[in-house]
Amino acid sequence: MSHAIQDRPLSVAPRRGTLSHARLPRWTPAAVAAGSVLAGVGTGLAAGWHSKVQWGLISALLFVLVTYALTTKVEGSRQAKDRVATSLVWVCFVLAVVPLLSLAWVTVSKGLAVLDGYFLTHSMNGVLDAEAGGGIYHALLGTVEQVGIATLIAAPIGLLTAVYLVEYGGGKLAQAVTFFVDVMTGIPSIVAGLFVLTTWNLTLGFGPSGFAGAMALAILMMPVVVRSTEEMLKLVPNELREASLALGIPKWRTILKVVLPTAIGGITTGVMLAVARITGETAPVLLLVFGTKLINPNPFEGAQSSLPLYVYEQYAVGTDAAVARAWAAALVLIAFVMILNLVARGIARWKAPKTGR
Amino acid sequence: MATTTPELKRSRSAKSATRPGDRIFSGLSRGSGITLLVIMAAIAVFLSYRTVIAISKDSTNFFTTFEWNPAGDPPVFGIAVLAFGTVVSSIVAMVIAVPVAIGIALFISHYAPRRLAKPLAYVVDLLAAVPSIIYGLWGAIFLVPYLAGLNEWLDQYLGWTYVFDKANEGPARSLFTVGILLAIMILPIITNVTREVFLQVPKMHEEAALALGATRWEVIRMSVLPFGRSGIISASMLGLGRALGETMAVAVVLSPSFLISGHLLDPGGGTFAQNIAAKFNEANEYGRDALIASGLVLFAITLLVNGAARWIIGRRKEYSGAAA
To answer: Do B144 and B171 touch, CB atoms closer than 8 A?
Structure first.
């Protein structure tokens, strides 16, 4: 606590006759902001810079400097530092919002240009790279199947692991599982893809298929499901378990009939968020599912496509029509993921355990 | 009484253990936990096995070679360029993302009006959900041309630093641009974890500081940041783990080359994940092994970074519990 406020001599003495320091009027930050933006734009125009990033940088710098100088003069250096910190925090916030808005705006405006019913219900069969038309039906189908299979694999394993950690755990094994679940959350998706590639494709000799991709996605999904389910199970009050056990109900039935139903809302949310996360994964799909222009409804045989992979392929083709298709597919993908997210959070709120009666 | 109690306990526990339902269910859940461990072990074992095959055929040093030609005769490949690119782009990402993320976390936890704070936290969560390929698409089509002006400017005024000297004319498909894009992508995860930690700061600390007449910034510097330091570190490392392993956004934005250049603004370079995605389709069987070898290195690095992050978080839990 060496930074503690000591009775340093105040840089500015209180005004005579009052107990409070002089304060800048409330509108000062707004005025300084407006002034520095104007100055930034003015310099930018005068120097003929195209990039608005530079205009913004100059404005921000001016704003901070002027605020600091003004506040030091009127209110003292401690207040000045406070104001500078406040404006920096606001700048950080703006810095985060700008790319988000830009991304959303660009995706929606470019995506809507191509997106229509035809686009959703047709594949790329026979469509040349440079010509417009074609659609994402095969990719949608592939994504739904792969993500579905991945969920069928990952959700039960993840759920049971969480049950083990919360209801049975406590030993060395549980500690190891907890640690490795945490570490597993950070596995790069491409490594999960490479793992399935070495085992399923190279060692066991299977070809690319939707199922191979689904296994890699399941590996990415498991730790997320475990973490969220674990959190939810920990929230279930112990009294419920004890009441059930006291009635002579076996532990497994207590878990199935009392603990899990109590936490079901949160668990569903966790699983859906995990689904949303793996829906956008491209790298493992690129390695294992390979991509095709045709509709392949069988996830166990032959190459399939998927939405994120489709976006990548169309971007890589690079013609105007293909890039337009990539944007439209990106819009569908982002809408899919966002809807999953919103519904999941809605369920969490709706099914939240009622605390206190 | 004293003699009967242990007996009673033993008989009860023996009885519950023999219930078939209980045995099956506990076995299943324990088995799932073990499955996860087995998967982790299998990842390490299988990738290592393939890596050994690959490296034994490599005619040069795997760690110091600046070339990637596993199909050549003799095969030549090394990860020096990839390691350099991965580290540099991640450093750029961290330098940008960590301060900004701390700022956003502070904004949400301490500065934003109450009504704004919740929706904001929500928006940050949504940001984390945007698929990386979409960041890549946005980065390649929107960010790259947009950064051209900034690059020129940096070159003009900071060119003397060597790092910002743009020697090669070309689009901004550089490690620097990749770093900026990665920074945007890892912002949400760092923000989320730091925000959680900031919200846990004991209210008494803050109120005590306020009561002594501290300004808001002084409260943050004296009570919030010291309390949250380990949280910030581990959050940053989680973000770093993400940045190191990011594949598609890098693959789409970067124009790869097998050169190490200190000029960050020049197009070129490569990262582990990007190289795997880019080279995979044209690779023969042996080329795949080489890519798997580079994947193992990436796996080991991210494992270390994430493990360290978790270890720091875990350590913090203990002492904050004692202090609270």
So the answer is: yes
